[in-house]
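User: Structure tokens for this complex, please. No commentary.
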Amino acid sequence: MYKVKTLNKIAAIGTKRFDKTRYEVSNTAENPDAILVRSANMLDMDMPHELKAIARAGAGVNNIPVELCSQKGIVVFNTPGANANAVKELAIAALLMSSRKIVAGVQWAAGLSHNIDVAKEVENGKKDFVGPELYGKKLGVFGLGAIGAMVANTATELGMDVYGYDPYITIDNAWMLYRNVKRATDPKTIYEHCDYICLHVPSTPETKGFINTKAFDMMKPGMRVINLSRGDLVNNEDMAAALESGKVASYLTDFPSADVLKMKNVIAIPHLGASTPESEDNCAVMAVDELIDFLENGNIKNSVNFPDVQNPKGGDESICVIHKNVPNVLAQISAAISSESLNIENLSSRSKKDYAYSVCEIAGHCPDSLIEKLTAVEGVIRVNVIRNR
Ligand code: MLT
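Assistant:
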């Protein structure tokens, strides 16, 4: 029986996919084999001893201590693309809200007294809520992953002139982009040309605070900044100054903080980017499928810390070895298996940066002595054995 712990509410359409005869799923599971999480903060959590995998129902993994998980041989999955349409739709709404003073206008209208001639008051007051159209304006999209690429394409359909910047764009996402999305080869091109920027990059040590005074200095005055990615991509102190000076006309963020709420011309949304029933369902299904495929087949797809590996599942048992990406580990794994007179029917092995994942499908049964030998190999982090037949 596999134990799966849910740290947040995960849509039932996903959790129902766990076969009840093989999985116990609860929010109280002790020492689980796998964790399903949405936004719960796992950064200071002690990792349970049996924990083999964490699946985040969402794209960002900044609530998970990914490097620590790698060191412990815990595979961290996310669900790229599963909530992309939801975030894209909010991004389009955000572009409109940051332009047309919709939020300020709605708040003003809601405060009008019922005793006055409201229609007359509205016609008098609306002059304060004039804002520009998107059509013909320039938009710079940082990050052309599943979400950024959709935002860029849809913005062109609204008549915007779109620039995209992503030094790590995948071939698939590059194929997705409409031909009229212009390629910016550096952020400066976006800052100098664009009227709006949308951030769709993950929060990493490299991207933290990259929207800062240096960036604002290069921007056209009156820039509108949309951040539906993560709050810490923007240096808040620098943003406050840019909003004060008018360099930035409006900052719309899905990540309010005490600092942000004090700033002028801020529109703060309570992290609603992926909050649609459709996206919650898509993320739950993808996250659950990733866990099942890993626990039952040893396959990895959409992990942020280990490589994709798909196994033919040809042997009686799969010996799944998580190890460091260093010389001689594979040779020692193979030698240990041969020393038990077991034949490797299929071998899949791939690396990702400092870590690697090798699956040996063997004919026969993996004895405890072999697990001990494998675990003792220098560079091996964890050994999981899956019975296939
Ligand atoms: C994401 O990282 O994809 C979103 O933050 C998901 C969410 O809202 O939970």
